[in-house]
Amino acid sequence: MIIPVGSRFRTQQLVLVEKDGDRVSTRNILPVRFVPFTRANGD
Question: What CA–CA distance (Å, rounded) separates 2 from 10?
Answer without folding.
Answer: 18
